[in-house]
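Key idea: predict the complex, not the pieces.
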Amino acid sequence: MESILEPKGVCFFAYNNDQLDYVKMATVAARYVKKNLKLPVCLITDEGSEGWLEESHSKEQINQAFDYIVTTNDEMKQNKRRHFDSPWTQFAAQFNNSNKHKIYQYSPFEQTLLLDIDYIVKTDMLLKYFDNERPLCMFDRATTLRHELPANEERFLYDAGIKMWWSTVVYFDRSDFSKLFFDTWAHVAENYEFYQYLYNFPSKLFRTDYCVSIAVHILAGMQETQLLLGNFDDTSLMNMSQKDDIIEAKNDNEWIMVAHDQKEVWKHILVNSSNQDIHVMNKRALGRVLPDLMEALDGNS
Amino acid sequence: MDERLEKALDFSNYALTINNQKRNIRNRVAQLQIVHHLGGVFIADHETIAFIKTLIDLKHKKSIVIDSKNNPITVKKLSELLEKLVDAYTSATTEFDIENEKIKKARNIKKIMDW
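Result:
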């Protein structure tokens, strides 16, 4: 780790692929952080994505979103991910996430909140965890837009497996425990096939959620209880599924969405979501409203 | 479709949507009620507020209080914790009331969505 520049801040990883403009989504997600958490933001990306960021955004837009840009050249695993955009459309794209555990090394902050670029911060709820005594926090539960439990594979590593922790939002400090956690995560990532055999999780995709879940399980002495790890006070990650959609962003806070029925996917209900942090798993849907969100955020600043 | 069934299903959708919005609000209220104090996590609900107030009424200035995670927390100034709890409770219930009023008046899905 190099010099630590600031006490608190937020980091995003964003590596573009041929289907999804991650840096563009990161730009908007960062603006939400600036608005609602008022913290400095660091983008971790590669040369190609950074080049595209500079080409597709003005200097002012980049400076409004990011205080730091860290350029990495890690070799990524081949990792094809199947995405849905509503129940009716799907596509596959390379998902570059195999260096996420290196955040401990890349973050320029003493206390870091690592967010996925599809996690939109609409409240200041996460701020209080910078002052809590837990060195590390992640969500260990999620809920759908319909306030239902997600499918089993989003809750456990397999039907009779260990509980899944989400790497979507990770708060950590520079304590020995945090270092130990990220070292364990790195070990699991490097020996993914072995742990896949041991924990029996599905094989197709390299998921950092599985890596962190196994790291937590190991560090907890193979038990459910985890003394030093927080779960954001039993609150749930609000997941907008890839099969849900955003109909309209009325402004940066209030979104009208459709939420599908998990058993009968053709049935939907409308949901008005505001004042609620949200994990927008349907990235194409997020992409469609990015211009509106950017305009709304510009209007507020 | 039988007109009666069509109307029933419309109402069913309305009920489903309004209940989901109510859960959204309750979820938000529950988050607002979480209070971090001296390393402990407290919920700003009736029980906790009444308990802390009782300790203060009994002339306790400090006390060991079990937090929502079942950890003992030495609270050096009970009055400080009470103030935080009441603040959190008040902002949570105020927001609850405002959002609830909006929903109560909505008689169709479009109105619930405020759209």
